[in-house]
Structures are given as C-alpha cells and as structure tokens.
Amino acid sequence: MSMFWTIWISVITLGSIIGCFFLLRWCLSNFTGVTEGESMGHEFDGIEEINNPLPKWWTILFYICIVWGFLYLALYPGLGAFQGFLGWKSSNQGITTLEESRDARVQAKEAGMLVQYDRELDMAAEKFDPIFAAYAAVPVEELARDPEAVKVGQRLFLQNCSQCHGSDARGQNGGFPNLTDNDWLYGGSGAKIVETLTLGRKAAMPAWFDAMGEQGIKETVAYVLSLSGREVDADLASSGKTRFAACAACHGMDGKGNQALGAPNLTDEIWLYGGSERAVTETLTYGRNGVMPSFKNTLGDDKIHVVAAYVYSLSN
C-alpha cells in the first residue's frame, strides 16, 4: 500500500475516533443555561423535558469503546501499511500456488506471526487428521459401505471435483467422464480410482488428419460408428476397417479399448466428447488431449482415499 493511502486511512480512522471523543465531551457539557435536573420548559402529551446529563453507564461504555478502538488499532492491522504490534493478519496475501502457500506458512511461523487462516488450518488438522487416517486404514471397497465416510467423501468431491464432473458426478460432454456408470477409462477398482486422483491423467489421442486425409477420416468414422451398431454406409465402413488398424494399437482390434492406456471402448455408445458423426469426425481430425489434474498436493493421501470410496460407491 502506498504512503498516500496509509496516511489517508490513518487520518480518517483516527480522526473518527478522536471526533467521537470530543463529541462525547461536548454532550457532557451543559450549554443550556438550565441547571441539571431542572425543567427545560418543554412539555408534550404530559411528558416534561428535564435537563439531565447522559447516563453514567452509557458514558462509561462509550469511553471504553474509544479506548478499545485505539488498543485494537495498535494490536491489529487497520492503519494502512501498519501491521499492528501482534503481527496478526487474516491470511498470507499474494499466494498463487500451493507451494507458495506452504512456504508462506513456514515463514510466518518462523517469524512468530499470527496468521488466522494458518491457525484455522492447524486446528482443523489437529481435529480431523486422525479421522481421515482411520478412514485411510480401511480398503476403499469396504469404506464405500460406510455411510458416514461416504458423506465426507461426497463433501470433498463437491468442493474439488464437481466443477468438471458435476454435482451428481454424471460428467458432461467435453471430456468429463460419468462416474456413476461402470465404464472406466483406466479401471474402476478402488486402487485405480486412488491412482487416478493421486497422479492425475493426461489423454493422448493424436490428430489423424495429416495421416488419413479427409476421405480417410470419413471412412474411419463410419467404421467406428458401426462398432456400436449404428447404421452407416457399408462401403465407407469397409474401407474404414482397414484404416482402423492404426487405431487398434490403443483401442484394440475389436475397438473395446485398453484400460492400461486409458483408451476408451468404442463399442458401448458411451462417448466423452459426443458420439455424433460430427463429434467423432472432430475427434479424429484434431485429436483429444484432456487432462485430469493430480490431487495429491491438494487433498493428500488420506482425503484422496475417502474421495475414492465415495466415487467407488456411485457405481457399486
């Protein structure tokens, strides 16, 4: 914060408190010419105005608030760039990555600073880490049958995964899989789900336009659509079957995919990017390179285990 704003904020803040003090002193003074306790000569509806001073309790409370205002400004941030004598702040500012956040927490502790967000993280870890550790000791498949653990996993899922997979985990076109069915790119066992959450996934469907050309793409699309029982041009599909040999390295000769590579099954009418002729043509022409991020640094192993149990419960 620049010096101008520091001075501006300090003048307004301190001026307001000092102004309240002088206003209180003015209100405690008798400028009416009427002795305290005497009538002011006003009466309305049987109610007479008496020249009484401010109530003692009210005056004392106001003085306490003024003193507290100065004390608070001395201890906590509030006057521009002045950080207060306690070294307190709500959070570490200017953080853009998790690594920066961890470094800032360490530096704040070494400097003896009171960072409220860090304290809350520490308190939460002290309270909840043992619970997550106990959950992590239970196999995913078994933990998926624990209603309380599943509820915890669902909350973590909504906070971290629903942006892509949806709050109902049914995914959406554009490369975000439905997690409630039994169609898995890399496998749906508890261990595989944990692996996916821990390491992340990166698709590598290459573009085939340069290798196949427009006609080759058209033929291959026809054959791919025929694998799931769609009505297509038989001649195009026949030619596409030959070209599909280049795709079989990942998807298999029968087109049923390969979970070791994350290659999808092309025979089940389940499509990440849409199964229309246009969508499949686009996939073959330009390729697909979807990314599932790693949550190891975001959630940690124990919380990943609980999220995996929730995801596993959705399709089992």
From TrEMBL:
Heme c 2 binds at residues 205, 247, 250-251. Pathway: Energy metabolism; oxidative phosphorylation. Binds 2 heme C groups per subunit. Residues 148-228, 235-315 form the Cytochrome c domain. One of its GO terms (molecular function) is electron transfer activity. The keyword Methyltransferase does not apply. Gene3D superfamilies: 6.10.280.130, Cytochrome c-like domain. It comes from the Bacteria. GO terms for cellular component: plasma membrane. Its main location: membrane. Keywords: Cell inner membrane, Cell membrane, Electron transport, Heme, Hydrogen ion transport, Ion transport, Iron, Membrane, Metal-binding, Oxidoreductase, Repeat, Respiratory chain, Transmembrane, Transmembrane helix, Transport. The chain crosses the membrane at residues 7-26, 60-82. PROSITE patterns: CYTC (PS51007). InterPro entries: CcoP_N (IPR032858), CcoP_N_sf (IPR038414), Cyt_c-like_dom (IPR009056), Cyt_c-like_dom_sf (IPR036909), Cyt_C_IC (IPR008168), Cyt_c_oxidase_cbb3_su3 (IPR004678), Cytochrome_c_Oxidase_Subunit (IPR050597). Heme c 1 binds at residues 161, 164-165, 292. It is found in: Cell inner membrane. Its cofactor is heme c. The keyword ATP-binding does not apply. Component of the cbb3-type cytochrome c oxidase. C-type cytochrome. Part of the cbb3-type cytochrome c oxidase complex. Belongs to the CcoP / FixP family. PANTHER family: CBB3-TYPE CYTOCHROME C OXIDASE SUBUNIT FIXP. This is Cbb3-type cytochrome c oxidase subunit.
